[in-house]
Specification:
It is a single chain. The longest helix is centred in the middle third of the chain and has 29 residues. With about 300 residues, this protein is α+β, with helices and mostly antiparallel strands. It folds into 2 domains: about 180 residues, no CATH class; about 110 residues, Rieske Iron-sulfur Protein. Helices cover about 50% and strands about 15% of the residues. The strands form 2 sheets. The protein has a 6-stranded antiparallel sheet with strand order 1-10-9-4-3-2. A 4-stranded antiparallel sheet has the order 5-6-7-8. GO terms for molecular function: 2 iron, 2 sulfur cluster binding; dioxygenase activity; metal ion binding; monooxygenase activity; oxidoreductase activity, acting on paired donors, with incorporation or reduction of molecular oxygen. It comes from Streptosporangium roseum (strain ATCC 12428 / DSM 43021 / JCM 3005 / KCTC 9067 / NCIMB 10171 / NRRL 2505 / NI 9100).
Length: about 300
Amino acid sequence: MKETVKTKRRSFKHLVPPVDLTGRIERSTRMDRTIHAVAKAVRRRLGPGRLRDLLHGVPTGKPLHPPLVTVSLGCWVATAVLDLTHADPRAARAVLTTGIATALPAAAAGITDWSSLHREQQRVGFVHAVANLTAVGLYAGSLALRLAGDDRRGRLLSFAALGAAGLGGQLGGHLAYRQAAGANHAESVAHLVPLGWHDLCELKDLPDGRPVARRLGYIDLFVLRVGEGVTVLADGCSHLAGPLHQGRLVSEDGSACVVCPWHGSTFRLSDGTVAHGPATAPQPSFETRIRRDGVLQVRPAPL
């Protein structure tokens, strides 16, 4: 009995991957030159503006890539089910075609997001993209075979494509859940600041017209004094937590804004809303008041 247990344990060890593949991808520098060139080309091609904001998902306040991807993956899984059940080939072709068509805008949104990530995230994202592009190519080949009347080989190619898409999905999950790409990095601010007014600093200690960082409890704040008025936002950018107090002050459509120094996300100072991506979530803002003794007080603005 003991020998059987030991044998099972040894067998189980062989099922555990000896190497963390995603960790190796994160640390590998072999792709960096290509990644740098492609990301730079994407940013230069799109430039700041409405198209890039649309692909990031700024108008909806949520990243655009994830919902588009679910449509493609759903269609491709449905294709596999139809193939396995030997359903009407026309239905399989229609669903497969829909998956390929929706993969194109999903890829455009994905590469736009990818171009504004940290290098470790870009490494995983690059392999994620290669896997997904491989899947799209295989699915396109499958569709061509089906249209030519070779449904058998078309089905086989679809199953291979689903494997590539599955690998891409696993890497996409790592990007989202382990590396927090696309997550709101300022979401926790409201939970870390107690209700009510809090003393922050004396007004006279703030430079006029230049943003600085001040700490309130567990969080850093972006503080900008202009005369007797003070604007306060969470300092960590909602995109990837860049320090906003080191950013540039600009005007967008008549609104004063701050540009994150890391990836260029632009937030309106009046309420923290996003003027330009890659950030899609607004920056937490704070109400301010000056006590008679000159102490600046802040409290989280209502959501």
